[in-house]
Amino acid sequence: MKASTLFSITMAALLLAPPAARAAAAKPAGKAAPTAAAKPAPAASALSAVQGLAADDMPYDAGSEVLISWKAMPYDAPAVKYTVHLSSISRDGPWAQGAVFPSDTKYRADIDLPFWAWKKTKDRHAVALNLETAFGVDDEVGKKRLRGSVIYAKVVASDGTSEAASPAVSALATSDWFSLPKLNNFVFTLLFCCIVLWFISNARKKDLFMRRIPGLDAVEDAIGRATEMGRPIYFLTGRLDIDSISTIASSLILGEIAKRIAQYDTQLKVPHTYAMTMAVCQEITKQAYSEAGRPDAYREDINFFITEDQFAYTAAVNGMMVREKPAACFYMGYYYAESLLLTEVGASVGAIQIAGSDAEHQLPFFFITCDYTLIGEELYAAGAYLSRDPVLVGTLRGQDTGKAFVMLAIFAGVILATCGVLFGFEHGVQTFLEVFKSY
């Protein structure tokens, strides 16, 4: 083989070989490549007492927690444990164990507070301890004593073989007047109040549009039918007392319906299951007849008490319906198992039935047996629809605007969280606040 051909084969083999093989081939024979000396592992930091220990009242609480914080130490590792001890007697104890956790956990960034009220950093450990839980206090006298007393705290670092305890520090647990984390709720409440007041002002100047609800449009037809047939109208306020929001709403509806009934001089009957509700409805009905210009048509027996027992009340009302055969029945308020029993009898006597309830488990029965049904919040809005009072109409429009805003905010939050930019937004706001404070 020619020398030039042999040289070409050798050079091609060296070019196609891995870099390590080329380096080995380039070294002279008989000399081993020097090996790199292994770097020694860094020595573990010596255990020492924590630095910068501070005990403070937990901000924005009712005085039941203290905040213990200290600097992140060089020896922080999963094998090293921190134990926080509390005492309500003196700096020398006796001590109660408040928390035990690995030294590479629980930083200020882990405290669940919004960014406008709390600086989230990882240069300091921080743990909020509930005094009632730490000291095992469950009576009211002990809780009040803890909330106004000086609390002592110390932190012990342990690696399983040795311990390092810090000097004790003290804090006074007090109650705060203002909770900065709830500032957003305060701002939204003020904004919502301004919106409601603005709509009330507009409602006094002009007639605001409100979507039509068939059940309320049918009220006039039901009263007219009862007047033509010369049969009574039954109005039921539900199974809850007057302290329930649904009963209050039903009593307001009773006042508006009583005004229309007074104009037609139709017989109205309102059986009650609670005496307090009956007394309130008596005054409402009496005022309604007076506003309608028919105070002489009002009778004290329009509202009457039957019994507080659920099914005894139901049986009594059903019996009266069968005997008197009312032309219209209104079921407004909160109902339980008696809903179907009442409406079946009302349907059997041929009455027009209009129901309104926020009891979602009873709405299917009203759908089946009644001619019209007000669902949920329509019960609360019925008073504004019937009276067209500017205050009620403006409040209703303000509530609708507030609900629309909340729905848009939830939708925007879902989009931001899905796209992964929510935390970036929070970090940007934090940076802006830090720059603003620096000036």
In short:
By secondary structure, the chain is of the alpha/beta class.
Largest sheet: 6 strands, parallel
Distance between the termini: 84 Å
Biggest β-sheet: strands ordered side by side in the sheet:
11-10-9-12-13-14
Report the β-strand fraction as a percent range.
15-25%
Structural class: alpha/beta
Give me the CATH fold name of the largest domain.
Rossmann fold
- Number of helices, where a helix is a run of at least 4 consecutive DSSP H or I residues: 15
Shape: elongated
Proportion in helices: 40-55%
Mean residue pLDDT? 83
CATH class of the largest domain: Alpha Beta
* Annotation, overall tally of beta strands: 14
The total number of structural domains is 3
Please give the radius of gyration in angstroms: 38 Å
The SSE string, one letter per element, is HHEEEEEHHEEEHHHEHEHEHEHEHEHHH
Low-confidence stretches: 1-43
Structure, described:
With 439 residues, the chain is of the alpha/beta class. The chain has 3 domains: 54-177, Immunoglobulins (Immunoglobulin-like, Sandwich), CATH 2.60.40; 181-198 and 393-438, no CATH class; 208-387, 3-Layer(aba) Sandwich (Rossmann fold). The protein has 15 helices and 14 strands. The chain has a 6-stranded parallel beta sheet with strand order 11-10-9-12-13-14, sandwiched between helices. Strand 10 (268-272), helix 9 and strand 11 (303-305) form a beta-alpha-beta unit. The longest helix is centred in the last third of the chain and has 30 residues, at 390-419. The model is unreliable at 1-43 (pLDDT under 50).
Characteristics:
disordered N terminus; Immunoglobulin-like; 439 residues; 46% helix; alpha/beta; 15 helices; 3 domains; Rossmann fold
